[in-house]
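pls design
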């Protein structure tokens, strides 16, 4: 792409003007223009999760989506450098699938409560306790944990992954609520771990009832990392991609997404006719990613993600097996 054909921040603002007030835009525009230029100079692409803020998601990202979409699309990247606007396990997954490319994460401290809830040693101990039972590991885990697993899953394909194994029971780690919500949909016995997402575990059925009272007729969509009683009260439960697709297909007059705050902002950009009610639970880890540190990552080649080759081989097998389902 020549410099003359590069988009500019002023042109991109038209896309997000309903979400980002005009007085805030000058704070972002300089970094956006610099990032667009740096991407071309560095032969870089930016992958952004659905929980990134709109100025990242809609203005500098090349590929956006949930964990499954980012994993699949990461394998199609031609650029030599990938900047992962998300949390650390996502950057590790991109590196697993692109071992020959440079993968950068703008803030190395962008972690995940689920990933922190389990270690590789925990998985080995679970295998000792349940010999012969396959381990299905959520992608919200470290590469070391993935390496101890048989297959990975995301919230979008967890049911398909569990049933693809053709066994009567599996261990499903580390999200207890996702495991319980999947168990309600299958005859496969699921042995869970007691990890929780610090964003989704805070939603309650009372929250939904209060929202319905305050906004009669509102459609409630819940992420399957929410407690089962929350999912039971919702009108639909699914991954962030599934929630976005639901809004696009059904065009509810008003909708609430029981998930991280920025998801509503990003989906609202494409659906000006839908009213989004926003209960706001922020992910402190996702919000560590900013335009400023994306720019710094490209300027200074920081923070590069590396994985021990012995760990990477096993983790890559678990992720690739998931992508084959």
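designed seq:
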């Amino acid at each position: 792409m020549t410099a003359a054909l590069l988009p500019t921040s002023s042109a991109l603002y038209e896309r997000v003007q309903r979400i980002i007030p005009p007085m805030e835009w000058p704070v972002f525009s300089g970094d956006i223009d610099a990032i667009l230029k740096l991407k071309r100079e560095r032969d870089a692409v930016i992958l952004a999760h659905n929980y990134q803020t709109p100025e990242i998601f809609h203005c500098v990202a090349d590929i956006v989506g949930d964990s499954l979409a980012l994993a699949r699309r990461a394998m199609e990247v031609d650029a030599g450098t990938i900047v992962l606007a998300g949390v650390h396990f996502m950057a590790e997954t991109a590196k697993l699938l692109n071992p020959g490319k440079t993968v950068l994460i703008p803030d190395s401290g962008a972690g995940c409560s689920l990933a922190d809830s389990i270690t590789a040693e925990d998985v080995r101990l679970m295998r000792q306790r349940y010999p012969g039972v396959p381990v299905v590991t959520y992608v919200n885990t470290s590469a070391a944990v993935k390496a101890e697993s048989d297959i990975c899953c995301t919230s979008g394909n967890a049911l398909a992954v569990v049933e693809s194994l053709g066994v009567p029971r599996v261990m499903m780690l580390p999200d207890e609520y996702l495991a319980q919500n999947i168990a309600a949909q299958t005859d496969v016995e699921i042995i869970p771990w007691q990890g929780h997402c610090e964003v989704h575990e805070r939603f309650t059925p009372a929250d939904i009832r209060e929202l319905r009272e305050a906004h009669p007729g509102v459609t409630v969509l819940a992420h399957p990392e929410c407690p089962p009683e929350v999912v039971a009260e919702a009108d639909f439960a699914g991954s962030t991609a599934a929630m976005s697709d639901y809004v696009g297909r059904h065009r509810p007059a008003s909708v609430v997404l029981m998930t991280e705050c920025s998801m509503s902002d990003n989906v609202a950009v494409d659906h000006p006719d839908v009213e989004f009610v926003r209960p706001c639970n922020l992910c402190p880890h996702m919000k560590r990613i900013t335009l400023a540190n994306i720019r710094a990552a490209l300027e200074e080649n920081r923070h590069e993600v590396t994985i021990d080759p012995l760990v990477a081989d096993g983790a890559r097998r678990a992720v690739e097996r998931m992508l084959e389902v």
